[in-house]
Amino acid sequence: MKFQIEDVTVCFPYDHIYPEQYSYMVELKRALDAKGHCLLEMPTGTGKTIALLSLITSYTLSKPQGAIKLIYCTRTVHEMEKTLAELKLLHNYQVKHLGPAAKILAIGLSSRKNLCVNPNVLEANNRDSVDAACRKRTASWVRALSAENPNVETCEFFENYERTASGAVLPPGVYTLQDLRAFGKEKGWCPYFLARHMVQLANVVVYSYQYLLDPKVAGIISKEMQKESVVVFDEAHNIDNVCIEALSVSVRRQTLDGASRNISRIEQEINRFKATDANRLRDEYKRLVNGLALSGNLPGSDSWLSNPALPDDILREAVPGNIRRAEHFLHVLRRLLQYLTVRLDTEDVEKESPISFVASINNQAGIDQKTLKFCYDRLHSLMLTLEITDTDDFLHVQTICDFATLVGTYSRGFSIIIEPFDERMPHIPDPVLQLSCHDASLAIKPVFDRFQSVVITSGTLSPIDLYPRLLNFHPVVSRSFKMSLTRDCICPMVLTRGSDQLPVSTKFDMRSDPGVVRNYGKLLVEMVSIVPDGIVCFFVSYSYMDGIINTWNESGLLKDVLVVGYVSSFHLVFLMILLFQEIMQHKLVFIETQDVVETTLALDNYRRACDCGRGAVFFSVARGKVAEGIDFDRHYGRLVIMFGIPFQYTLSKILLARLEYLRDTFQIKEGDFLTFDALRQAAQCVGRVIRSKADYGMMIFADKRYSRHDKRSKLPGWILSHLRDAHLNLSTDMALHIAREFLRKMAQPYDKTGSSGKKTLLSQEDLEKMDGSGLQERLY
Amino acid sequence: MASGQVSKRVKFKSSVKDPGTPGRLFLTLERLMFKPNSPNSATKLNMEFRFVKNHKYTKEGSNKAPMLNLTSSQGVSYIFEFESYDDLHVCKECVGKALSKTGETPKPIDTSEVPSEQPSTEELLLRMNMLRENGELQKLHMRFVSDGILTEAEFWATRKKLLGGNFSKKSKQRTGLKSFVLSDTKPSTDGRTNKVTFTLTPEIVREVFAEKPAVHQAYLNLVPRKMSERDFWSKYCRAEYLHHAKNANAGAAAAAEAAEDEELALFLKPDDILASETRRKIRCVDPTLDMEADEGDDYTHLPDHGIVRDGSKEITESQHEHYRRTLSQELNRHAAVVLQGTPIDEEQLKDTQTVAEALKLSKQGENASNEETDMNTNQDRLSRISKMIEIDDLQASSDLPLAPLSIKDPRDYFDSQQATALKNSRDTSIGNDPVKRILSTEESYASLRDSISHVKTTGLINPIITPEAAVKVLSVLTHNISSTKYDIGKNHGLSFLDTLPNTSKEELLYHWTSLQELLRHYWSSYPITTAYLYTKVSRLKDAMSKIDSQLQELKESVQSDLRHQVTLLVRPMQQAIEAAMQHHDAELQKRSARSGERSNGYT
Description:
The structure holds two protein chains of two kinds. Chain A contains 34 helices and 23 strands. In chain A, the strands form five sheets. An eight-stranded parallel sheet of chain A has the order 7-6-8-5-9-14-4-15. In chain A, strands 18-19-17-20-21-16-22 form a seven-stranded parallel sheet, with helices on both faces. A four-stranded antiparallel sheet of chain A has the order 10-13-12-11. Residues 556-577 of chain A have low confidence and may be disordered. Chain A is of the alpha/beta class. Chain A is globular. By secondary structure, chain B is of the alpha+beta class. Chain B contains 20 helices and nine strands. Chain B has a seven-stranded antiparallel sheet with strand order 4-3-2-1-7-6-5, covered by helices on one side. In chain B, strands 8-9 form a two-stranded antiparallel sheet. In chain B, β2 and β3 (31-36) form a beta hairpin. In chain B, α16 (435-458) packs antiparallel against α17 and α19 packs antiparallel against α20. Classes of the chains: A alpha/beta, B alpha+beta. At the A-B interface, β3, α3, α6, α13 and β10 of A face β8, α11, α12, α13 and α14 of B.
């Protein structure tokens, strides 16, 4: 369908549109017109992504004079694929209805690991080895060497790509990673470098958050994006965490040992060069005197992870004299390592500000702040000079230099925390020195400054006024949309008691109570027998999930042991009989583990089990990888059970330091932030069941604490508005009854366009009939 | 010939020019059947002679091939080409005899029902076949169509999928595996010694081999040349026992044992075959959930970057990671195998050796076809993603391909439902589950007590109880416990339904299937848009209320001790009827209110 929003003709690839999608587009357009940033919350399952993509592409088409580039950031690669698939759908529709003028170039960009097509490089099993294997074949000096010596291996895909030079372009279209690989294979060009080159020319670029937020990556990939770009952060409810993680580094014993090995190797290399090619080091020295002119004129294949500090904070001046000579620099690094080793060797937890830490480095190791700041660039330059290609072996020394540069650059918003062991395992010494960033606004600031419009959107951004404070920006539009439902297709419930009417909770003192564990198990057993297709369970942590699964599984073993002892306790034990086997009788069980490969396969199988009608249960962890970005829509998730409230580990020193910082700078209370953070995770977990208004799903919050107003009220509005008072304090049997009724109701046919007064589905005529303002009134 | 059966090699053609399908023609006095030589050919024929109206054949001596042409009462002709004229003659005679015979018998088919749209002959034939093959369906058909509650067309409309082309394929659907873990062989101890016993059946062995390819491989390599079957499995069980030993340093113990025993290490080590299979599978995983790719793109979490210790990451303490195998991994693997199904049929489940060989063969086949399927799955995947991406209610729906649900016996479904109902009742009162078993437990317990009191009165003699008696008591106790847990739902043979008298059981099931049929029709006719639907709904409503009253009668007619259970079984049915009635009434009210409104508006 095609319709007007003010002066823009929007081309939308469906016959109908939800009213909230329409208003979302209206608000978004306002922000684009004002060339400002915006913050939009719209429930999942209302087609945010497609609304956003259609508006922005249509907006660009209607303004041919100033072409706007869309930079779409997703948190994960699989979300990137999903976005590109939606974009493909849209693009096909637009080309069909608007003709070839609507053709655009859209690409997804990922690391070498996901884009490389060279089988020899791909043999390496992790990302860093793939990167290094690529560099070994494509670095400029390697290629120069291979011109003389045919035995030196190069990458034919890269050579072909280089030979074609500017002729290597992608024709317009939408390219997923798979498409890029296929195209690269067909043409014999390296897809990775092709994609990196095309990023500058594409109309739409889809990539991961880090490519903009993490200065190490953004420095190479995104430094040349034009100002007239719209940057979208989708599913941005965790954006503050991404920002602080991008600027945090930690140092362990292994890091120090590795770094000192690295330094010895560098020393050997230096000696070798001194013997064979002393000029090279002298040249480098001269270059450093003139200032770091590294950036810009390096061939793409030589570039390496960039400076960990933000671009505005990097000094554009000459490297301090004391580290210009390679040997001197190594000496400084050695002293730094020694200092860090001493500091790590502590009995107590220490917390320090960067300023005092730098001061003590200066006192005890004689390294001043400016020297620290240049560590990373100096190392980078040295490694290039030494022509080191196996960068994956040098990660440790790189970490140390990252740390030094960050600690030398930032004096506020960070703290240094040294812990001798993990709180949860005090008997195992594992000292860590962490430089942790508390201020999320630091990493995102350059993005807000550089681009004219930044859109932050997600299904859960409540309370919506908190994000501008956390990220320190001023949105021109900040709106939270409700969901207009044709029928009550979501059914949230708060379960406070088990089948024996005793309270359930994952509160610290209750979580390992066998009664609670059993009640949780009974709840699941009952639910698997009545809910069709897929069920997803979220637990508060891996360890809790493992514990519960083991208990459920072994309650049978326990029984065997008991019988020999006391015959009379037979009946008691009977209750505990193999909860797990009972679950398995109805559905297959799949579990998220810490191994991503295994989890991915488990998910794939889970979907297959739901597809073929067998039905399955997926056990997952809140804050885990699955909760972060996998949809459990339609038959993939008819019920989500959230066992407990996913609070952060409150004894963590880093968390405490961050809370303190938030309190001092933003006047956000610790308790409020913790609840906010836990509830946004919970909402995120359960919010993935709905994909459209035709879909339906239930959500069970199984913890007595959810019934308290201060906790519950932090849930996003679209869940709260469906949470009836009668569903606030349920026991297992009541929940079971409600679930049966709900499922029966949902199975009835209904009128999709919404009958009673309010339209929940608009056709083209509907939109034409009413002008924008009329619609707004109808909705709110 | 004597029995009236004739079978000949023929080619079956739908027209004279058709090259034909080679196969065999079977003729009896009542019917003719054609079976193609290649089993996956769709052309099959099985019809009764009473539908054959006419037959023609080529004359001997003419240049044409020997052919027989049968014309059915609907005017469709079936042509068979024979290998020789002799064959043709034999069949000609047989057909002639059969035709003259059927001419005398009265036609049992009721020609009075005229469906609203005339279905094609093939479809009619198919319907007839289905009714014949499926007694359940025939009963339903009799009950509803003959009584005029449903028309012929309505009855078949809901079964279009069955009548569709893939009906013939249905029987080829592989039987699935049961979901629960068989090989989770909990060791049973006899209570006297430290001896631990594991029980293995061919079914369990199949599961073990399928889930742990390394064990399978080891079995093929070692047994029987290097070690005996018995040794192999005791080694295996030892390894399992080590894995399950629930102490803190299970990993360490396993590592230590593995270092000493080369063969044992085979079972304790991570499965290499599995790992390579995983690597292959991860490459064709759906990219919209590929979290592995995600890890490859994550530069924030370079080693030692990002936040390490804020409590969100987990910690593992053992340095013997290599030997640790978690329950989660096992469960995932198990579920994957169940989902994949097994190529081994029940007949092959004789002994370990055959199971191992059969699995090996099937695997080889799989590997060969993997190459091509990889390409195909790629395509499938892409089209599936694009379908998944669409928002369904914004668009006129595109019909997704459905795999027909094939429930071998609808009663199984009923059974499982009633198992749930019974389970609920069990929660309230534990004792009444399998009545007989509890009794025997109590008996043995009582006898144990008897002997204890006997000891008390007579004093301690040596031995206190005869060891045989003690063992008997314990083994009965333990046996009952480990078997009751599997009774829940698994053992349909012992379900409550079977304790009912046969007639009431049949009646119950019959009501259940008919109610399902009615409800299906009922709900599918909403929203009521035409007068036709309106009358249909009221017809259905009447029929349902009839069933409701019949159920009530049934409930009252059973013996009092069974009544509670029967009530439990009947309740979901009655609830369903009630819901339908309520919906009907509400709809009626709405309708009348609306029409009232409209008339107000007009006046």
